[in-house]
Amino acid sequence: MRKYVIEAKNITKKFGNVTALRNVNITVRQGDIYGLIGDNGAGKTTFMKLLTGQAYSTGGELELFGAYLENELEKNRSRTGAIVESPGFYPKLTVEQNLEYYRIQRGIPGRKKVEETLKEIGLWEGRKKKCNALSMGMKQRLGLGIALLGEPELLILDEPINGLDPSGIVEIRNLLLKLNRDKNITIVISSHILSELEQLATVYGFLSRGWLLKEITAEKLHECCTGYLKIAVTEPERYAALLEKEWGDIHYQVMPDNAVHIQNPQLPTEAYSTLAFRNGIGVLELEQRHMTLEEYYMNLKERGRLSC
Ligand SMILES: Nc1ncnc2c1ncn2[C@@H]1O[C@H](COP(=O)(O)OP(=O)(O)OP(=O)(O)O)[C@@H](O)[C@H]1O
């Protein structure tokens, strides 16, 4: 069993009369890439701020690397690195000078550390650039570099791919995967780009208005979302009636575009097309589809809870 890095038990956070988190239970294990998903105002940043010590809970218990007493928790925060809200760079200093500044400020020994970090985040070539001349992608990488200076075991990243172009997104993704794989760094990451999170996360937590709707591993989610068969036919209504007659307990949906979506099909694809052919119905399109993370999330929000 992998060790717990974060255990949030019944965490509540109120800002005056605004409740940002309500009895939230979140568990992150060593080596996880934990994707926090939720609409604006769901409580993602607040949760991350509780982890970094930028805010404190008003109820419940937070454990970081097994410690929950405030002074021990604080000590363990030194084992984390974070980008929560934009890191402050000195615009007139170069990339290298900014990193050097933060190294000294945090009391991290060894000048070599800056060089190693620059190479790790792919900013060695751009180290002499002033921060006010950096692209968004370079800024995000520098932010990550500052977070990495203290050799964290846990990275907390609030929307680190926000505002990046497609190649910037791929660069950050590959960097995070490498850090996770090679250094076993546990990562908590939030993003509104679900198709991107899908390529990174090993566990998901879905927040809505301060409630944790669901926590599920990527593996389990994938199993649950075996998805549906999309079969577009010339006579969808008649085809739907035939489906029911042939397999009574089948779950399907007739879509506005002549397609019928068969949920979790139990038989080989041909069985469903043959049924149409046998009854003189034309098959226009046949495609096995997995539910995307985005579709799962939209369903979850609509229904509040899903069976898986
Ligand atoms: N310092 C604060 N004072 C008062 N209310 C706050 C404060 N910080 C956050 N909130 C409120 O708490 C709720 C959760 O905000 P939070 O920033 O955690 O959401 P989020 O999921 O990160 O949203 P986004 O995707 O927009 O970043 C919101 O209603 C927000 O207005």
UniProtKB/TrEMBL annotation:
Matching SMART domains: AAA
Domain ABC transporter intervals: 6-234
A Pfam family matched in the record: ABC_tran
PROSITE patterns: ABC_TRANSPORTER_2
Signal peptide: none
Superkingdom, natural source: Bacteria
Transmembrane segments: none
MF terms in GO: ATP binding; ATP hydrolysis activity
Record keywords: ATP-binding, Nucleotide-binding, Transport
Similarity comment: Belongs to the ABC transporter superfamily.
Name of the protein: ABC-2 type transport system ATP-binding protein
Organism (species): Muricomes intestini
Lineage: Bacteria, Bacillati, Bacillota, Clostridia, Lachnospirales
